[in-house]
Amino acid sequence: MRFEIMRLDEVDGTTVDSTVVDAASVNRIVQQAAAIGQRLWIRPAETTAS
C-alpha cells in the first residue's frame, strides 16, 4: 500500500509539499518529523484503475 504524506506549514496548516511513499517508509518519515516537531498529514494514496 502507498501513502501520501503532506508536510504542513507550522503557522496556518496549509500543505507545504507532499510525497507518495510505500508503507515501509511511513514509520521512518514519521519518526524524523516527530524528532523536529514537524506536522504531517498522512492518507492512503489514490490509485488509478488500469
Name the descriptors.
50 residues, alpha+beta, 28% helix
Residue share in β-strands: 35-45%
Biggest sheet details: 3 strands, antiparallel
Overall pLDDT: 92
Which overall shape is indicated by the principal axes computed on the Cα atoms? flat
* Number of helices, counting only DSSP H or I runs of 4 residues or more: 1
Along the chain, the helix and strand elements come as: EEHE
According to DSSP, the number of beta strands is 3
Class by helix and strand content? alpha+beta
Radius of gyration: 12 Å
What can you see in these coordinates?
The chain is of the alpha+beta class. It has one domain. Helices cover 28% and strands 40% of the residues. The protein contains one helix and three strands; from the N terminus they run ββαβ. The protein has one helix at residues 23-36, and strands at residues 2-8, 15-22, 40-44. A three-stranded antiparallel beta sheet has the order 2-1-3, covered by helices on one side. Strand 1 (2-8) and strand 2 (15-22) form a beta hairpin. The longest helix has 14 residues, at 23-36. The chain is flat. The chain starts with a strand and ends in a 6-residue tail after the last strand. The model has no long low-confidence stretch (mean pLDDT 92).
Question: What does the secondary structure layout of this molecule look like, with pairings?
Answer:
Blueprint (H helix, E strand, L loop, with lengths): L1 E7 L6 E8 H14 L3 E5 L6
Question: TL;DR?
Answer:
With 50 residues, the protein is α+β, with helices and mostly antiparallel strands. The protein is 28% helix and 40% strand. The two termini are 16 Å apart.
